[in-house]
Amino acid sequence: MTRSESINQATPILSSRGVYIIRNIVNGMKYVGSTRHTFFYRFGQHLKDLELRRHHNFLLQRDYNNVGMSGFELDVLEECDASACVEREQFWINELKPEYNIRNNQKSGAPLGYRIRIREKMNLR
Q: What is the C-alpha separation between 93 and 91, in angstroms, rounded?
């Protein structure tokens, strides 16, 4: 199978929405998120923010700075309707206990209200 055939086969799933995982293949740490847009759009947002060193998740950003994109995989866990994304994201957070989801008891959507102090953030880089 050629690369273009592989990309064409992946296109339908990238144009859907649901729950995804970002996996650090160097240390095994994981981040689970969901999107009500498309996977293609959300993955692009993550990659752009990581490249510009402004990702909202400072642990993920720190590891990305150390190993680069070649140290990460982005995969779809589950396709779902936009209305079910937060519920299904929470299921996967509970199931996989992803280390990059900052707090062990994180609820899906929680980072929107969570702010870490600047001094703490700088010390963790």
A: 6
Q: Report the C-alpha gap between 22 and 40 in whole angstroms.
A: 13
The DSSP-derived string for 34-56 is: EESS-HHHHHHHHHHHHHTT--S
For residue 111, count other CB atoms closer than 10 A to its CB.
16
pTM of the model: 0.74
d(CA 34, CA 28): 20
The architecture of the domain spanning 3-123 is 3-Layer(aba) Sandwich (3.40)
Identify the burial level of 113 via C-beta atoms within 10 angstroms of its C-beta, where 0-12 means exposed, 13-18 middle and 19 or more buried: exposed
Q: Closest by alpha carbon to 90, among 105, 73, 79?
A: 105
pLDDT tens-digit map of 59-101: 999 999 999 999 999 999 999 999 999 999 999 999 999 999 9
Angle, CA 4 vertex, CA 51 and CA 25 arms, to 5°: 45
